Amino acid sequence: MYVFAIYSALCLFFMRRYEARFINVNNYLLNRSNILAEEYELSLGGTLILNEEEETVNKILMHWKEKESDEFFNNPQYFNFSKHYFTYKNHIYKSKVYQIIKRMPKGAALHLHSSLMLHVDKLIELTYEDHLYACYTDDHLDLQFSITVPERPCPLEWSLLSELRNASNDIELFDSKLKTFFTLYTENEDIMNSDINFTWNRFNKVIHNIKSLIRYRPVREKFFYKALKSFYDDNIMYIEIRTGLSYLYELDGTIHQGLYLAKLYQQVTKKFMEDYPDFVGVKMILTHHRKATLNKIQTALELANKLKDEMPEFFAGFDLVGQEDIGKPLFEFYPALFEAKDRINFYFHGGETDWFGTSTDENLIDAILLGSKRVGHAFALIKHPTLLREIKEKDIALEVNVISNVVLSLVQDVRNHPLASYLALGLPVVLSSDDPGAWDADPMSHDFYLAFSGVASKHADLRMLKQLVINSIKYSALNDKGKTKLFKIFNRKWEKFLKEVIAMNN
Amino acid sequence: MYVFAIYSALCLFFMRRYEARFINVNNYLLNRSNILAEEYELSLGGTLILNEEEETVNKILMHWKEKESDEFFNNPQYFNFSKHYFTYKNHIYKSKVYQIIKRMPKGAALHLHSSLMLHVDKLIELTYEDHLYACYTDDHLDLQFSITVPERPCPLEWSLLSELRNASNDIELFDSKLKTFFTLYTENEDIMNSDINFTWNRFNKVIHNIKSLIRYRPVREKFFYKALKSFYDDNIMYIEIRTGLSYLYELDGTIHQGLYLAKLYQQVTKKFMEDYPDFVGVKMILTHHRKATLNKIQTALELANKLKDEMPEFFAGFDLVGQEDIGKPLFEFYPALFEAKDRINFYFHGGETDWFGTSTDENLIDAILLGSKRVGHAFALIKHPTLLREIKEKDIALEVNVISNVVLSLVQDVRNHPLASYLALGLPVVLSSDDPGAWDADPMSHDFYLAFSGVASKHADLRMLKQLVINSIKYSALNDKGKTKLFKIFNRKWEKFLKEVIAMNN
């Protein structure tokens, strides 16, 4: 009996120890999964509930995401997010995740500069238009449509591009050389990895070259129609373009200023919507270069006022553009902007910089204080806890352009893009592509792909993608009626997309 | 009278409008400076109050910081934080900010791997010791101290290094070739910018080569003394080393295992403290490679227990080491670690990765749940809002090693290092240098310089630097008595430093 009592006591003692340890270990696992669940729920799209079909598609998507992520992890020689986008961009097309994202309806593209929307392959088609003269050396290109030889100075001489092309032995080679003037794409890693000022100099040249092609009114019309088509084909249903509304010319010498281009964009959009009734439209954000004087900004704001009165449906708001680091900060213009802010909606670029604590970095403060509806890039926001709180409280959307930030020398490894944190914090992110034409990217699919496979957590799934699309509609400049229409079309396309992915996989 | 009334009313109307605008604009400026002030105060060191002398030094420091920052901004061809540390490391010495930081007493270095603390120039002196045989080809080096030719296999043949050196036509050239085996430093940008696996392979070879030199007991003694001296000369007053306590050998074939090396480190430290009485000491964090089996980890934890009992003053805690991405996650060992955690202090590496949502990334969760006193690197923490909250609440220090993260291919542009956000959030950061010997960096000054001039806000000043030093003492494994002693010595050195900077500038 005594022995039994001792045995029982010992047994109880060890059971309790075992139990205590078991409870502790269970607690550990519970705490751990609670943290993971809390972080997932907080992250962008984390509270969305998927229906049965969505769950099926999600399984397919996540199967490929995991498989490809393991491949990249194990074979950095073939696909390596630590390198520049140009080194792996042509591999993206093979990705199954990309192929699913490509088909996915992606809602709206809200941060685009109008002249840089079109892929160089499509741009080159426009150089086959009649009457195009070129002033052309190895590192200089100027274009002008004209009946006679342009009178503007040219370092060598103006020649009809068609004649140059025909005189070349190899048209394909000629065109591929011509393309280099219209794109930042390069296979030279030294150029890829140059500093921001060098890159922006190259970028400004590309902008100049493209603009010299599309300043001719008939070509601009075709250019914009093709651009809308390429976004539409990439499953984008609504677009907001940033444009400085510069002049256009006709062959007869007529010059169109100011509102003309806005109206042309509107007409082309109307035509496009007739041809593709499930495209919801375009709105315009008037821009001005940030190197301007206060006077020029005031004049631009007056133009914005006029646009708002004359084209209230088409006009969305105002922004400043150009390399943020070396341009003037918003603060320099704040009295004029402050006065205009109750009438004009702002969509300011802010914090497109690596320099913490500089005036570029502090553009974020002014964008927020000036009531900017969204902030463009907001790359530096992650370094500003107070501004992060303001952004969240005021529900200001962040227009994130991952590839742009790589190509324009802000960050090299997309996995270090602050978007990862913005997604984890569930901030109101909208993805966009800034100038996809200038870096030979898809209109929007490459940016979605990189954000999903390169930047976001391995656990981020269809919920995140869907939330990004929802955000692009929610934070657009559309009125409620427009948003409802866009949501309706999106929902229809989304169902079709789900069925397609399931069918593809059967 | 009527006209006067109208005039007065009008006047009042315009005055009120003017006043309202004036108040608004003033409000704007007030809001703006409040945000800036709030962010400054939240940031690391933001609440420190400087005395008069410190204010003077701060003015000198900030004068140079601003001047140099403008220079780098305007001349990216000479100094460019967007590039790899190796491209600008030799320019750092010219910086006045660096020269001030170099003189600054920097408290403690808390994240160091014992074999990689010594600069290659000092390491090379040790290759002049007698009896050193080398097995040496263009891309392979193995070293052994021996009376006779070593019996271990060698692809070519074992030769006395002294004979090889004497037989070479150019000893300087011979040594500079020899150095390449002991360092990751390279001028080849392709190698600098390789992927993480490639870099870690190079790194593991460097570790192998250095270890083959310092496995010989008398050389290890000299090595460690020289290492302490180099940190001391860089104004570091206390050190915590991570070491796996591998074996040492003597010329007569004796092998020393286990505790021997710990005791040797302790003896050398004692000798060093006798020679330099204002050096406060060394503590040891026992490490094991993270590719180990659960069994091996359990054995290592038993050794930790033993160390704790036998050398309670010297032993600080336990950690796992090796490339985190391809090693096993903490979670795989958690039952053993969980059981040990109430007896052994942990100082785990966590989140030394770019891969968000992987098991490496989630080492951060386990480090926190296992009660890690500090977290090594915590590079990925910025992507984890819940864990950021936990770190703050539990006051867990982050051991940040900026240069290490660049050299070991986590991030290229230091301005994109998450340390910027950790500093802005006022998290308990301690700076360290991980393996400064392996990348030819100063023991600690280069890391302080980069954190201050490259990573932190342009507004971050002497307060931040002082807080980093305070943190390094506060979050060390020293007991209260030790911390008090270290603070006392620091304060004395700090006053001397202030006077020196002021004198330099007069």
UniProtKB/TrEMBL annotation, chains A, B:
GO molecular function, one term: adenosine deaminase activity
Location of this chain's protein in the cell: Secreted
Entry's Gene Ontology BP terms: adenosine catabolic process; inosine biosynthetic process
Domain Adenosine/AMP deaminase N-terminal: 26-101
Keywords for this protein: Hydrolase, Metal-binding, Secreted, Signal
Catalysis performed (reactions): adenosine + H2O + H(+) = inosine + NH4(+)
Domain called Adenosine deaminase: residue spans: 195-487
Domain of life: Eukaryota
EC number: 3.5.4.4
Cofactor(s) named in the record: Zn(2+)
A Pfam family it matches: A_deaminase
Listed GO CC annotations: extracellular space
UniProt xrefs under NCBIfam families: adm_rel (TIGR01431)
Family: Belongs to the metallo-dependent hydrolases superfamily. Adenosine and AMP deaminases family. ADGF subfamily.
Name recorded for this polypeptide: adenosine deaminase
